[in-house]
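Cross-posting from the chemistry board since nobody answered there.

I work mostly on the small-molecule side, so proteins are not my area. We synthesized magnesium ion and want a rough idea of how it might sit in this target. Sequence and SMILES are below. Is it possible to get a predicted 3D structure of the two together?
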Amino acid sequence: MAAGDVESSLELSLTGSGALPGGLPPARSRIFKIIVIGDSNVGKTCLTYRFCAGRFPQRTEATIGVDFRERAVTIDGERIKIQLWDTAGQERFRKSMVQHYYRNVHAVVFVYDMTNIASFHSLPSWIEECKQHLLASDIPRILVGNKCDLRNAIQVPTDLAQKFADTHSMPLFETSAKNPNDNDHVEAIFMTLAHKLKSHKPLMLSQPPDHDEIHIKPEPKAITSCWC
Ligand SMILES: Nc1nc2c(ncn2[C@@H]2O[C@H](COP(=O)(O)OP(=O)(O)OP(=O)(O)O)[C@@H](O)[C@H]2O)c(=O)[nH]1
Ligand SMILES: [Mg+2]
């Protein structure tokens, strides 16, 4: 599957779609809720912004609670909304929101910073948090090592990350939200996930996404991709 299989136009929206011109109600489309979690400063905001806005943000601040980014894509002729929940990595900014993150989640993206081994060592606690919130074990999960553009500062070797990914039956991607050469690859990561979700034919339709019901089967095959 290539990212080029889908339409490239972007839609940025924090709210649901309104009525269409002419007063017709909007077409119902499937929405995939994907939460992005990991330590503070690993680049969750930059990755989600890169995918939804098509560029690296000029500056970011620590996320408080959660930010939503949404992009509509067409996959195999079907219009789908990818809703990214960009969560706060800092505990003090998460507390009140955590319950909401995990409600009706369709997929999880775990992010670590390739230049910060501590963020990699935190991954088991993020996985544990998912378990504690009773996230079904068959929900698709992927592991993303970010900041691969900082080649001289890498602290997490690919083989170590791959071992971890294999142990947890997750595909591993090493990428950069910043390096423009990696733009297509951030795109490909989320599009791969969207294709996977679509192929599992979740039940939900329409908005708001919190009312969705979804059941997804796992796809355990792990992929390693360093696109730097
Ligand atoms: N070199 C480089 N820097 C990056 C990359 N992605 C993010 N950054 C930088 O890393 C810092 C943190 O990025 P954020 O996206 O705000 O991190 P976050 O994970 O959202 O942090 P919290 O909101 O606190 O959880 C910022 O200074 C970004 O500019 C990347 O791919 N390469
Ligand atoms: Mg953030």
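Reply from a structural biologist on the board:
Welcome over. Reading the output above for you: The first strand starts at residue 30 and ends at 37. Helices lie at 44-53, 98-101, 117-121, 123-132, 158-167, 183-199. Happy to explain the token format if needed.
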